[in-house]
Design a protein that fits this description.
binds uridine-diphosphate-N-acetylglucosamine; about 475 residues; UDP N-Acetylglucosamine Acyltransferase, domain 1; binds calcium ion; Spore Coat Polysaccharide Biosynthesis Protein SpsA, Chain A; nine-stranded parallel beta sheet; 10 helices; alpha/beta; single chain
Length: about 475
């Protein structure tokens, strides 16, 4: 049986206490709503409709590449009212109408298909809903069953008495309806504690029509947890991380203290990668076989080749390490930083939009921006490529096997030729030819005996006396 999926995402999400609409709160770097949208598509839905309202413009912008149909709910009058907004775009659709929430991000495509399967098993008539057993059902609608054990109705927590509150079987908010849903929705009333049109009230209406209502218990309740407040959001993210880490460990990744490691879904890891405690891997980061990432390093959108190493407390964004390159501890690699094979960037070195050739060493306290450094060159401690003149950025080019003495500033645009040698403490603003020594600093002058003279007292054996 064909199906469409409607995702309800118009609510304000008051309990988040946030300016950001609830469904845009990120989980592992993606807006929460991106997950049910992806699950809906992967389930093979013919159409995916998202009901937006609170923060609609921001929500649509965040999902502009998702190829879904958006419909508006002007006021958040309740989940039944939200679904009713999808009628115009689904009128005439013959299959199952699956409904889920933007705040139930771990719902899997298989579960959507199983729910459609349950409706199909009932001859495609009536409705099917997913339920779950929770130790602590607080906040959820309770599933009230009749003496025959069949579902009779759903009671929202705010409308429940003490007996109903004690029920631990709850409504997941994920349903599959037959097309009579559009006929029954207008009959839902808002006479309840919240003055809202409740979607779960459809259960009683379907039963009144003599249509079957199937309650499908979820295999894994954690899949259906809702993110209504920050604590639930954090718990869901935690569960997603557990799953992701488990998957990579099964693929051969070594994680020390895995519960301290954060990684996002687009990260790619090869076998024998070693992640030390507290590592954070974001965006499209890819790490090759046997590479090691040191403790408390934060790496976003970077490529770390096989056998490369990032030492502790380094921060990388949009960088690339080729095989055997080493960065850190305390390295800062910004977009466009490329370390070719065997290059080394050490403590407190910042590299931006700069390629370091094979075997280049920049061991300490340097800034290399908009530069190109040829293979085998040594960059001394405290070297700075001054790439900005207050208006524009300029490039620095350093040849192969050159030597840039400590605390030199290379004022771009400037070029140092192959095997060029810059004396420590130089301010270089003219090109240095290949093989040349450049000294660009005030000449040293020694004033003999100056200290003793000022003091008026000379050591016994002093040779200088005036
Ligand atoms: C809902 C169910 C509850 C169930 C729980 C499961 C209702 C009345 N209750 O409660 O039985 O146990 O989900 O997680 O449906 N929304 C709109 N427009 C509105 C109101 C809500 O689009 O007018 C959207 C929200 O953005 C949210 C979803 O519907 O994504 C669910 O609303 P929420 O307020 O979170 O309902 P719950 O109280 O969690
Ligand atoms: Ca909810």
């Amino acid at each position: 049986m064909k199906h469409a999926v409607v995702i309800l995402a118009a609510g304000k999400g008051k309990r988040m206490r946030s300016k950001t609409p609830k469904v845009l709160h990120p989980l592992l770097g993606r807006p929460m709503l991106a997950y049910p949208v992806a699950a809906a598509k992967e389930s093979g839905a013919e159409r995916v409709v998202v009901v937006v309202g609170h923060g609609a413009e921001a929500v649509k912008e965040a999902l502009k590449d998702a190829e879904v149909v958006f419909v508006h709910q002007e006021k958040p009058l309740g989940t039944a009212h939200a679904l009713a907004q999808a009628e115009p775009v689904l009128a005439g659709f013959e299959g199952a109408v699956v409904v889920t929430s933007g705040d139930t991000p771990r719902l899997r495509p298989e579960t959507i298909r199983a729910l459609v399967g349950a409706l199909e098993a009932a001859g495609g008539r009536g409705m099917a809903m997913l339920t779950l057993e929770l130790k602590d059902p607080t906040g959820y609608g309770r599933v009230v069953r009749g003496e025959d054990g069949r579902v009779a109705r759903i009671v929202e927590e705010k409308d429940a008495g003490p007996v109903e509150r004690a029920i631990r079987e709850v409504n997941s908010g994920v349903y599959a309806f037959d097309p009579s849903v559009w006929r029954l929705l207008p009959e839902v009333k808002n006479e309840n504690a919240q003055g809202e049109y409740y979607l779960p009230d459809l259960v009683a209406l379907y039963l009144r029509e003599g249509l079957p209502v199937a309650a499908v218990p979820a295999e894994d309740p954690s899949e259906l947890l809702g993110a209504n407040d920050r604590a639930q959001l954090a718990a869901i993210e935690q569960a997603m991380l557990d799953e992701l880490r488990g998957r990579w460990m099964r693929e051969g990744v070594r994680m020390h203290l895995p519960e301290t490691i954060y990684l996002e879904p687009d990260v790619e890891l090869a076998p024998d990668v070693v992640l030390e405690p507290g590592v954070v891997l974001k965006g499209r980061t890819a790490i090759g076989e046997g590479a090691r990432i040191g403790a408390y390093s934060v790496i976003a959108d970077s490529k770390i080749a096989a056998g490369a190493e990032v030492r502790p407390h380094s921060v990388l964004e949009g960088a690339r390490l080729e095989p055997g390159a080493v960065a850190g501890p305390f390295a800062r690699l910004r977009p466009g930083a490329v370390l070719e094979a065997g290059a080394f960037v050490g403590n407190f070195v910042e590299v931006k939009n700069t390629r370091l050739g094979q075997g280049v060493k920049a061991g300490h306290l340097a800034y290399l921006g908009d530069a190109e450094v040829g293979e085998g060159t040594n960059i001394g401690a405290g070297v700075i490529t001054a790439n900005y003149d207050g208006e524009r950025k300029h490039r620095t080019k350093i040849g192969r096997r050159a030597f840039i003495g400590s605390n030199s500033v290379l004022i771009a645009p400037v070029e140092v030729g192959d095997e060029g040698f810059v004396a420590g403490g130089s301010a270089i603003n003219q090109d240095v030819p290949a093989g040349a020594l450049a000294i660009a600093r005030a000449k040293q002058k020694n004033l003999e005996g100056w200290v003793w003279r000022r003091r008026g007292r000379y050591p016994e054996k002093a040779e200088v006396r005036e």
